[in-house]
């Protein structure tokens, strides 16, 4: 079950980025569950990671390797998170990186590991290492669609975005994939994102893009309020296009940023649309806040409310649940007579109570839609923030109850 058609786009190959896929049989025999990205020499990589203090071994190691060397390979496995595995987890992740480095003829620090799957189980190192020759033997620039499927866990469909733009007469290609369907909460979640471009981007500009765009996309989605242990979103720049290096001060930077921003949003939204058991794609737009924090506090309180989420699943315009969530968001000195709450274009709350022109029929018409916007205007400042979420269905409980079976 997912919201919208969700078809993969036509992927444009990114020069300097090759992808290989293999089956290690980590969780299911024959399933493609190991993905390797091979980056051209002099490629640059930046990213953001989970802020869960129980971060997984591959997160610890990827951060360490990023600080030590220029990445040449990304190694991704599904079916096992290698999280909650203590010192052994670090050793196991390092063993996988070492095996790939030896086979590819690069330093161990130039390999970044990523894992997703069940927490608390030892990483099946032998299976992953055994699959590496297959993955390395088949690296090509046109494997984005297969990679999108290869990084899935409870996802019902692969997720991707791809585009080409012209920057001052030079064609730039951007392609990306993501995975995630549950345990999704801001500060990253059980999701992975890999976006690549052939543009040449200065290191500080690349990190600025990875941080800002990740913050406004992957860190603005939530399925269930659970922050995972493994998440990462990486931005890779191979530098293989024919144009000049793009810096923070470059006149080309704003256009590149705007295009990348749409790719990031498409990939993040695809995760929400494929939320475990999701039937609704919900935008929560909070305006009129005094600062970013109170706007986000209101948005997330509504987004995480089980009562709101179950009402969305039932297509029940029970607007009192939204009002109650706004009221408990912790905004100090909230003027209840000033704020307004909308469901789509229908005003629910005005002057401290139900809007005079509200009717159950109008509210129902919005709730019956597959994509819904809840707009809240606090009318106390000029800050606005947007969060994306989904509903809670019976299937969400079933999927997570049976996750390890």
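^ Assign residues to that structure.
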């Amino acid at each position: 079950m997912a919201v919208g058609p969700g078809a993969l786009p036509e992927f444009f190959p990114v020069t300097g980025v090759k992808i290989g896929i293999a089956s290690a049989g980590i969780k299911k025999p024959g399933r493609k569950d190991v993905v390797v990205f091979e980056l051209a020499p002099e490629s640059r990589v930046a990213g953001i990671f989970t802020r869960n203090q129980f971060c997984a071994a591959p997160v610890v190691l990827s951060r360490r390797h990023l600080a030590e060397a220029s990445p040449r390979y990304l190694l991704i496995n599904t079916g096992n998170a290698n999280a909650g595995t203590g010192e052994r987890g670090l050793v196991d992740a390092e063993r996988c990186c070492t095996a790939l480095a030896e086979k590819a003829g690069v330093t161990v620090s130039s390999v970044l590991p990523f894992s997703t799957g069940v927490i608390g189980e030892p990483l099946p190192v032998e299976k992953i290492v055994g699959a590496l020759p297959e993955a390395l033997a088949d690296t090509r620039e046109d494997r984005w669609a297969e990679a999108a499927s290869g990084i899935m866990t409870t996802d019902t469909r692969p997720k991707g975005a791809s585009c080409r733009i012209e920057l001052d007469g030079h064609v730039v290609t951007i392609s990306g994939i993501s995975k995630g369907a549950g345990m999704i909460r801001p500060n990253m979640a059980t999701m992975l994102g890999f976006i690549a471009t052939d543009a040449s981007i200065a290191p500080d500009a690349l990190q600025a893009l990875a941080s800002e765009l990740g913050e406004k996309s992957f860190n603005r989605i939530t399925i269930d309020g659970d922050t995972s242990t493994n998440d990462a979103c990486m931005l890779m720049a191979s530098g293989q296009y024919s144009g000049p290096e793009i810096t923070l001060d470059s006149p080309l930077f704003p256009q590149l940023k705007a295009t990348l921003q749409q790719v990031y949003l498409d990939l993040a939204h695809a995760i929400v649309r494929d939320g475990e058991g999701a039937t609704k794609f919900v935008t929560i737009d909070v305006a009129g806040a005094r600062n970013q924090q109170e706007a986000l506090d209101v948005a997330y309180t509504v987004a995480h409310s089980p009562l709101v989420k179950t009402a969305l699943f039932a297509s029940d315009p029970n607007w009192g649940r939204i009002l109650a969530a706004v009221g408990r968001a912790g905004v100090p000195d909230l003027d209840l007579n000033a704020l307004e709450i909308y469901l789509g274009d229908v005003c629910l709350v005005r002057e401290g109570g139900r809007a005079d022109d509200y009717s159950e029929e109008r509210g129902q018409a919005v709730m019956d839609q597959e994509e819904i916007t809840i707009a809240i205007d606090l009318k106390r400042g000029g800050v606005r923030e947007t969060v994306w979420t989904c509903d809670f269905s019976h299937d969400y409980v079933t999927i997570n109850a049976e996750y390890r079976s």
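Residues 184-189 have pLDDT under 50 and may be disordered.
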